[in-house]
Design brief:
Elements lengths: L1 E5 L8 E13 H5 L4 H4 L10 E13 L2 E5 L9 H5 L9 H7 L9 E3 L5 H4 L3 E3 L6 E3 L5 E5 H8 L11 H8 L4 E4 L9 E6 L6 E8 L2 E5 L22 H18 L2 E3 L8 E7 L2 E8 L6
Length: 293
């Protein structure tokens, strides 16, 4: 595991906002790998098609004139055939959630993408009004990605190919607004990054140091509280045994240091903490982000 510390922007007056971008459905078996349904359905009940509902929850960080959005959901540019596979539902989206706090897409100065799977970066790009192609959804923002992960996404393996959509990635790459996060780059004060490689190559897990607390944006290292027990690893992960090892190391640190885990995909819960038990690290409590601000 590798951390990067960002320290060129001072977040002394940091404000955090939960940004809900909508809900979608994925097969429960795919989300829990080898774990039997009789076990995972206790926390994530499935419908008659074995599908569970998942959030696409993002985090907005404001300080003075900087406004950074971590991930941005699936977006709205995909055609009906594509969306039909994912059963988008709910009455919220990225832009109504931003508006709830008085912001719009043009206010975003930095877009941080944990990785480039479509449910994390699809909102980065939108269709042009004349339907002639695509353009950036956040026209004033810098887009930050892991360079290793971008190279991985541009030459995708057959297992992940369906998750790396050219229309999500190429417009960013060609925009002139793409910036890389590498091992020696300084970026944001009070934010550190954990790089993990089990789910996909060089996924970034931001740790936000806020008012003597550490809030960790979990992305796909820990999609939901149902994934806390070690064997509960997604079938989507390219290296599931590595995920298991990375998750074990992280959860032990999270329990020791009382991290607040911000859950991108949990349908019911925004945040949780974990604790040590005689069965390993387990859920301690769940709560809304606003409860700690």
């Amino acid at each position: 595991m590798t951390f990067i510390i960002f320290d060129s922007i001072n977040f002394t007056n940091m404000q955090l906002y939960t940004i809900e971008t909508g809900y979608f459905k994925l097969d429960g078996g795919a989300m829990f790998g080898v774990v039997p349904k009789v076990l995972w359905s206790k926390t994530n009940p499935a419908d008659s098609n074995n599908l569970c509902s998942w959030a696409m929850r993002c985090l907005l960080i404001k300080d003075h004139d900087r406004l950074m959005l971590i991930d941005n959901g699936i977006g709205d540019k995909q055609d009906e055939k594509f969306l039909r596979h994912y059963y988008l539902h709910g009455d919220i989206d990225l832009h109504t959630s931003l508006a709830k706090y008085g912001f719009c897409a043009d206010d975003i100065t930095d877009v941080f993408l944990t990785h480039l799977h479509f449910d994390h970066c699809g909102g980065s790009v939108k269709r042009k009004k004349d339907n002639s192609g695509f353009e950036l959804a956040f026209k004033n923002a810098k887009y930050w990605v892991s360079k290793k992960h971008l190279l991985w996404a541009l030459s995708p393996n057959n297992r992940e190919k369906a998750s790396f959509l050219p229309e999500n990635i190429l417009p960013i790459q060609e925009s002139g607004r793409l910036y890389f996060i590498e091992n020696d780059l300084d970026f944001f004060n009070n934010i550190s990054i954990l790089f993990v490689n089990g789910h996909t190559e060089s996924q970034m897990i931001p740790h936000i140091h806020y008012k003597n607390k550490t809030i960790v944006f979990m992305a796909d290292l820990l999609p939901s509280i149902g994934h806390i027990p070690l064997p509960y690893v997604m079938g989507y992960d390219t290296r599931p045994l590595l995920t298991l090892s990375e998750k074990e190391k992280f959860l032990n640190i999270a329990a020791d240091k009382e991290y607040i885990l911000f859950l991108e995909h949990d349908y019911n819960y925004e945040c949780c903490t974990v604790m040590h038990t005689n069965k390993g690290v387990r859920l301690k409590e769940t709560f809304k982000l606003r409860d700690i601000l």
